[in-house]
Design brief:
Arc Repressor Mutant, subunit A, Rossmann fold, 5-stranded parallel sheet, 5 strands, elongated, WH-like_DNA-bd_sf, transcription regulation, carbohydrate derivative binding
């Protein structure tokens, strides 16, 4: 329902009472503001009572106003423009203790990610990665940062990792053209969702590869083709992507696959330590004293 809520409201407009039409009209015209309003504030903006707002939520088929609000939040993830996000961020955070608000919101996203991520899908993803012939990783725009981070550590653990890093759809398909059965592709996508990542995962799935989708919601375009769905909460309400929870999930996934390859990984790091020391890569402890 979240994806079509505005269309549902518009379609049902003739059925609503006068007060409910006022609420519906306000939401349709100002959904970017309404989504963060309490029932009381939405009622005041639409010139109706708080109880009318609650009844409107029931009329729309929700158990209460918070569920209506959640549906609106789900919908706006991919609908708000960058300019609208700036306005929302200013209304939500302007004139407050921004440090505390942002960090507490990130803490909440990590907590929700820990609670909502399927342990069965997590373990299935780990099994598939460890057994894969080739591991492909793809993420676009801000999610590319996460993909590069994962690629950095996966390249230490495995010999068969490929990061898909291109802005060209043609080059993307050239880089994954040999993907097939026995391979794994890990896709990372958060609002506003990248069409290129969704196309890559769809192509991989059709060619028999296992698909691991790390994204924020079941309504994400990369969730539907996932063999293993790893949900990581993010927030696009402001103009800055909050990717703290996805990064924490990636850390857990990296640790889990690393422990499955513990003996090999220990030998790899022993060799790396020797190389780093020989070529003076890192500052030595005695040089800092």
């Amino acid at each position: 329902m979240a994806v079509n809520i505005l269309a549902d409201i518009e379609r049902r407009m003739p059925e609503f009472s006068k007060g409910q039409r006022s609420i519906a009209s306000y939401i349709l015209s100002h959904y970017d503001k309404a989504v963060y309003m309490t029932a009381s504030k939405l009622g005041a903006a639409a010139h109706v009572s708080e109880s009318t707002v609650v009844r409107f939520a029931f009329e729309m088929g929700f158990e209460g106003y918070p569920e209506l609000q959640d549906a609106l939040k789900e919908m706006i993830k991919s609908k708000l423009t960058a300019v609208q996000r700036i306005h929302v961020a200013d209304e939500q955070l302007g004139g407050t203790d921004i440090l505390s608000k942002v960090m507490n919101a990130d803490i909440d996203k990590i907590r929700r990610t820990m609670e909502e991520t399927s342990r069965a899908d997590f373990e299935g993803a780990v099994d598939s990665i460890v057994a894969a012939k080739t591991i492909y990783i793809i993420g676009a725009r801000s999610a590319l940062v996460l993909a590069r981070f994962m690629n950095l550590y996966f390249n230490i653990i495995f010999e068969n990792v490929k990061l898909i890093d291109t802005t060209s759809s043609t080059e993307m398909f050239e880089q994954i053209m040999r993907i097939g059965k026995g391979d794994v592709i890990i896709g990372l996508s958060f609002p506003r969702y990248s069409k290129r990542s969704a196309k890559a995962l769809s192509f991989a799935s059709k060619n028999g590869a296992k698909v691991i989708s790390i994204t924020d919601s079941r309504s994400s375009p990369i969730a539907e083709m996932a063999d293993y769905f790893l949900q990581a909460r993010s927030d696009m309400a402001s103009f800055v992507d909050s990717l703290v929870a996805p990064l924490s999930l990636i850390n857990a996934l990296t640790v889990a696959v690393g422990l499955r390859k513990k003996e090999e990984l220990m030998h790899t790091f022993e060799r790396l330590e020797s190389i780093w020391d020989e070529y003076d890569v890192y500052q030595k402890a005695e040089e800092l004293s």
